[in-house]
Design goal:
By secondary structure, the protein is α+β, with helices and mostly antiparallel strands. The chain is about 25% helix and about 15% strand. It contains 6 helices and 7 strands, in the order ααββααββαββαβ. It has a 5-stranded mixed β-sheet, with helices on one face. Helix 3 packs across helix 5. The N and C termini lie far apart (about 110 Å).
């Protein structure tokens, strides 16, 4: 009677260690298993637009005035950058609010610096707009644009509202009473986290102002 001998493990005799890996890949391919050479679970690819300035902006540093921040667009979000506006000493509070608002509006309309453009910053606010204070029965902290707010793009309006709300141009609660040329109605706008994260699709929430 013939006794079956146990099967011995398959040994790759004569195969040098540096040949083992390629040979194993061939064997796996023959079994229908696709080999990989590097791990693939690294998560999403890193963004090419960091939305972070590589260093201080010389043009901003050299300017003189009241330090402020404005919201620019970067990677579909609103991101603050440093600016400054000039306010004459001794300016009354009512006039100061309008001067700050105009300065901020001008900064928003400026083409971003070379450093900012390299970081991916842009703006949707166009030049030529002016802002004025209240008239007739407007609330004392009213701001009126030379353009109707509803005629602006969602992103441009979000830039303006969020920039104003974070400055001396805002009311005490951070809201902004804004309207177009008189006698157009006024609305009270707010800058929310949702608006800052998606300004192109999320318009600043607003409510009508009584008596406007």
């Amino acid at each position: 009677m013939t006794i079956a001998r146990p099967l011995r493990p398959l040994r790759l005799r004569g195969v040098r260690p540096w040949l083992a890996v390629p040979l194993l890949a061939v064997l796996l391919a023959g079994c229908g298993i696709r080999s990989t050479q590097v791990p693939t679970d690294f998560g999403p690819a890193p963004s090419l637009v960091p939305c972070a300035l590589s260093g201080p902006d010389i043009s901003t540093q050299s300017s003189r005035g009241v330090p402020v921040q404005v919201f620019l667009l970067c990677s579909g979000q609103l991101v603050t950058v440093d600016r400054s506006v000039r306010i004459p000493d001794g300016t009354a509070e009512a006039a100061r609010r309008v001067l700050v608002a105009q300065g901020l509006l001008d900064e928003l309309a400026e083409t971003p610096s070379a450093t900012e453009r390299q970081g991916g910053y842009t703006t949707n606010v166009r030049g030529g707009m002016t802002v004025s204070g209240p008239i007739d029965k407007d609330p004392e902290d009213t701001l009126r644009l030379s353009t109707q707010p509803e005629n602006l793009t969602s992103a441009a309006l979000a830039q303006i509202i969020c920039t104003f709300s974070d400055s001396a141009a805002a009311r005490d609660d951070g809201s902004v009473i804004l309207g177009g040329p008189a006698p157009s109605p006024l609305r009270s706008y707010e800058c929310t986290p949702e608006v800052r994260s998606a300004p192109a699709t999320k318009s600043p929430p607003s409510t009508s102002v009584d008596g406007s």
